[in-house]
Amino acid sequence: MTRYTVDAKAIAEVSAAASKEEVRYNIQCVHIEDIKGVRHYVATNGYVLFMVKEEHPLGYQLPDGGVNIKILSKPTKSQLKLRQKCYMEVDEYEKYASIYCEDYCFVTKVVDCKYPEFMKVVPNVKKTKKAHEYCYFNPTYLTMVKTFFEEQPLMVPYMDSKTQPALFISGDKYAVLMPMRI
To answer: How far apart are alpha carbons 168 and 52 in whole angstroms?
Structure first.
C-alpha cells in the first residue's frame, strides 16, 4: 500500500468533466500526474477538460504516468469548502484507493488504462492570444466551465482561431473547451 498527499477538492472539482460514457473507459476517471514538480489533477469527456495544478506537492511523487482513479463515493460540497491536504492510500493489488481527510473519506477505484496525453490539448498561454473572433460553444459544457470556476464571471478565453480549443484560466484552475462546428 502506497500513500500520497492529494488535494481532495481538486479531485472532486475536475471529476465533473470525466466521461460518463461506458465506451470511453479510459477517460471515465480523474488522472493525477506529477510533471516537473507540479501535480496535475485532470478529467475530460473529450469536449471539455478540467485541470487543477498544485505547486510542489508534499509526500511521495506519483509513479511515472500518474494514477487514474474513478470516484465511487463523493464527499459533499460542505465537506469540500476548504482546500485541505488529504492522503490517498493506493492498494496496487486490490486496485482500490481511499482518500482520507480530517472529517471524511471517499473511495475510488484505480483504473488501469493509459490516459490521453492531456498536455497536447491544453493551448500554450505564451503562444496563444486572447480570443478575437466569435465562436459557438455547447451551452451545457459552457455551464460546466462556469460552475468549475465557482460562478465567477467567465473571462475571455485564449484561442488561436474559432476552430481551436479555448483555454480559460483562473489561478491554478484551467478549463479547455472545444468550440462547436456549425
So the answer is: 12
For 118, the 3-state DSSP assignment is helix
- The CA distances from residue 165 to 46, 69, 157, 169, in Å, are 11, 25, 9, 13
With CA atoms as reference, report the closest residue to 4 among 74, 76, 116, 88.
88
Question: At 10, is the secondary structure helix, strand, or coil?
Answer: helix
**Which of the 8 DSSP states describes residue 25?**
G
How many Cβ atoms sit within 10 Å of the Cβ of residue 70? 15
pTM for this entry: 0.84
User: pLDDT digits over 172-182, tens only?
Assistant: 899 999 887 66
Whole-number CA gyration radius for the chain: 16
